[in-house]
Design brief:
With 144 residues, the chain is α+β, with helices and mostly antiparallel strands. The protein has 5 helices and 5 strands, in the order H-E-H-E-H-E-E-H-E-H. Helix 3 crosses helix 5.
Length: 144
């Protein structure tokens, strides 16, 4: 299985990275989002360095919902295709809302100190059809 998976790794990574770039650009223009953390965006402070170091930018990103913890919970609950998960990294698009999931038990002030804000969403973009990903994100954003 490992050898079989290695044969398609390059193709899968191309799709992961291509989808992530499109998702980041979509989210960056959405009014419910205050910031998108993705090195592939020219607005990212490390964009130039990352562009020199990589052929493509990684399929991992995070973004901040303007509505805080309530918006994060509503967004995660409204997703229909993207999967809620505490770990990231399969061929499927996975999302987490650390403030209500992995870091729920950590006091808010401590979370904020480490950049884990109330509206932060972490995302590992998968290889699904991009139009389906965008449609799922758009409908979930409408519900917050």
């Amino acid at each position: 299985l490992l050898i079989q998976g290695m044969k398609t790794l390059e193709i899968r990574m191309d799709r992961h990275c291509s989808n992530a770039a499109k998702v980041a650009n979509f989210l960056a223009k959405h009014p419910a989002i205050s910031i998108v953390n993705y090195t592939g965006l020219s607005t990212h402070p490390e964009h130039a360095i990352a562009s020199k170091q990589m052929k493509q930018h990684a399929p991992l990103l995070s973004f901040e919902l303007k509505g805080g913890i309530d918006a994060g919970k509503k967004f995660i609950d409204a997703l229909e295709m993207c999967t809620r998960a505490v770990s990231l990294g399969t061929v499927d698009t996975l999302v987490s809302h650390p403030a209500s999931m992995t870091h729920f038990g950590i006091p808010r002030e401590e979370r904020i100190q480490y950049g884990i804000t109330d509206g932060l969403i972490r995302m590992s973009v998968g290889i699904e059809n991009y139009e389906d990903l965008e449609a799922d994100l758009a409908q979930a954003l409408e519900k917050i």
